[in-house]
Design a protein that fits this description.
Blueprint: H1 6-17, E1 41-42, H2 48-56, E2 60-61, E3 66-67, E4 72-82, E5 92-103, E6 108-115, E7 118-125, E8 128-132, E9 140-141, H3 145-152, H4 156-167, E10 181-186, E11 189-196, E12 199-205, E13 211-219, E14 225-233, E15 258-263, E16 266-278, H5 287-292
Antiparallel strand pairs: 1-3, 2-3, 4-5, 4-16, 5-6, 6-7, 7-8, 8-9, 10-11, 11-12, 12-13, 13-14, 14-15, 15-16
């Protein structure tokens, strides 16, 4: 998001340039394990099946072959969705622009979509949620923090990131801990089952070793727990021959060309991805900071 006031801008620049020599705010240019960008995990320290999946997504970086330098991800596209946070969910709506940005090292997310000329922005940061009129403008409280926080780990890069940490016996904050992890086969496909904050996520890898399906039973707005399945297809990167490249930074990250999500078998999301941004310029200032910026 663009800084909208001086106080936000200063906070943004301080984070973006710390240890990076003033370069663009890309995590791969920041020092390892500083607390700003999360924990780096050597690829050699994790299970081979998870290592293959991380490599297939382009998450293993630099000559040290570490995972954790790509942890800000933004999926951009258009399509249809059912707004499960609306007062009367159930109707499919056309979405002219869909942007979903996640920060795995916090964790946090910002969903920013436009439908019928109306823009909606929804944020979660750890256990707090709020809405914004536009990114960084006029925040208002939301009670849907739990749902938004759980939804982060349904995304393909997030699911593999969680499996990487579990395999390395690390919590989300990088501290040592034992996280449930199972690696098996179903119908000839590799299946990774792990836990994030006590919530179980099951990731099925396709023939290309990238997530084709991530599922979990999570509590939706309103309190009902239902099975949510996210399906991914048509992965491309920034060098795709004969196709429009999705990786806008041309950094070798692979992005799904299509995202389809179902809740208890009913389709609630069908988005064609047109842009994928790895480590974009994204920040998540708390509402109190945004209020001071007015």
């Amino acid at each position: 998001m663009k800084a909208v006031a001086k106080v936000v801008l200063l906070a943004t620049v301080a984070v973006a340039t710390a240890g990076s020599g003033g370069q663009t705010a890309l995590a791969q240019y920041t020092p390892a394990n500083t607390g700003n960008w999360g924990t780096e995990i050597p690829a050699k320290d994790i299970d081979p099946a998870i290592r293959v999946a991380a490599d297939a997504l382009g998450l293993i970086r630099d000559t040290r072959l570490v995972i954790g330098q790509v942890n800000l991800l933004e999926y951009v596209g258009s399509g249809t969705m059912v707004d499960v946070e609306s007062a009367t969910p159930g109707r499919q709506i056309e979405v002219s622009r869909f942007s979903y940005a996640v920060a795995l090292q916090i964790p946090a997310s910002r969903l920013d979509f436009e439908a019928a000329g109306t823009r909606t922005v929804r944020v979660v940061k750890k256990d707090r949620a709020w809405n914004e009129e536009k990114p960084g403008i006029n925040p208002s409280a939301s009670t849907n923090a739990a749902y938004r926080a759980q939804a982060i780990w349904l995304m393909p890069h997030a699911a593999v990131h969680a499996a990487v940490l579990a395999s390395a016996r690390k919590c989300l904050d990088g501290k040592p801990c034992e996280v449930p992890l199972q690696i098996g086969k179903e119908d000839g496909k590799t299946v990774l089952t792990t836990s994030v904050n006590g919530q179980t996520y099951k990731t099925t890898l396709g023939a290309d070793n990238r997530p084709e399906r991530v599922e979990a039973t999570i509590a939706l707005p309103g309190g009902a727990s239902k099975k949510v399945v996210s399906m991914y297809s048509g992965y491309r990167n920034g060098q795709s021959l004969g196709q429009t490249a999705l990786d806008k930074f041309h950094s070798g990250t692979y992005w799904p060309g299509r995202i389809v999500q179902e809740i208890d078998g009913a389709k609630v999301l069908d988005i064609t991805i047109t842009e994928g941004w790895s480590n974009p310029f994204q920040i998540f200032p708390e509402p109190e900071l945004l209020a001071k910026a007015k």
